Amino acid sequence: MATNILEGLPSDYASGQFLGRAETPAGPSILAIRKGTIYDITEVAASMSGAIERRHFDGGIKLGPVENGLPEGWRLLAPIDLQCIKAAGVTFALSAIERVIEERARGDAASAAVIRAQLEDKVGSGIRSVVPGSEEAMQLKAALIDQGMWSQYLEVAIGPDAEIFSKSPVLSSVGHGAEIGVRSDSNWNNPEPEVVLVCDSAGEIIGATLGNDVNLRDFEGRSALLLSKAKDNTASCSIGPFIRIFDESFALDDVRAASVDLTIEGPEGYRLEGTNDMSQISRDPTDLVDQCLSEHHYPDGFVLFCGTLFAPTQDRDEPGAGFTHKVGDVVTISSERIGTLRNTVTLSSRATPWRMGVAAFATNLAERGLIDRI
Predict the structure, then answer these.
(1) What is the pLDDT of residues 271-319, one digit of tens each?
(2) Strands 193-199 and 205-213: what pairing?
(3) N or C: fewer beta carbons within 10 Å in the chain?
(4) CA 329, CA 67: separation in Å to the nearest integer?
(5) Do residue 364 and residue 229 come from a single domain?
């Protein structure tokens, strides 16, 4: 049966240009969607990193209209390969407050409600009204220190330096339709629906896609030094379905204005909805990219999660216990101009093992006679 990809595309897909990847019987292939038609461009660009770096989006083998789906035996992968996977944290006022709650509750969800009310009273309105790194932000910082309310999370929320971290190893992200993983020893966790910027080696933003920066609130709440354990686990990074390339139909201003909707449907009938409104971000996407690039080099390019406004506080099982995932949750992240990313929650210990690393990827391309087109 052909893989349906129409559900992952925005309604105006026929006017846009998209890039993606698919697992085929021969190995991973690069897809381009132009004017509603799918092309396999692997013969001219065997890696997504190379396609973006050389702007090789044209040509290829015509596979047919998107309505017909992918050929039988093909399935979508995350639409990136050799790019570094980076993420920006605490880029929205609400997420900053939630991180402070995690820290003060020491990862205990039951304590979060009381602390949330206290922090909203003292921090909420102030943190929403300042530009990070501004004189007003420094004045707010001084006032919060005087009140004993300062936190490392507020430092990156209103200070001059954004939080930029490595989310997941190269080639480890999963795509649309795949399972996403949470650690089996986590009792307080959540999805993070985000816009993901796609950049070449020079830091130029060439397009955007969607991502789920799965987060373990109990781990990070115990200590910020557990960030890597909270963020980087098997199948904990979902990206896709496709990269929408910037052109006359879609530009960075569309990203700035994007609403990213989230729906969680639990196996017991539970339903949660939320929205990540990019217009409320504290730092402009270009600033986040500049801070990610900084004094670094990314020869194969990079992608950058922009952070999220969404923080689930709706109780699921017990009053005051907040939200946490259950195995079988279906997580749908969608944005009108970018598409729809859907995954089902499992435990990282049960998720499909990640086996195609850089060596296996290069070996596969060499066996197919494509290594010189990487």
Answers:
(1) 999 999 999 898 999 999 999 999 999 999 999 999 998 878 788 888 8
(2) antiparallel
(3) N
(4) 27
(5) no
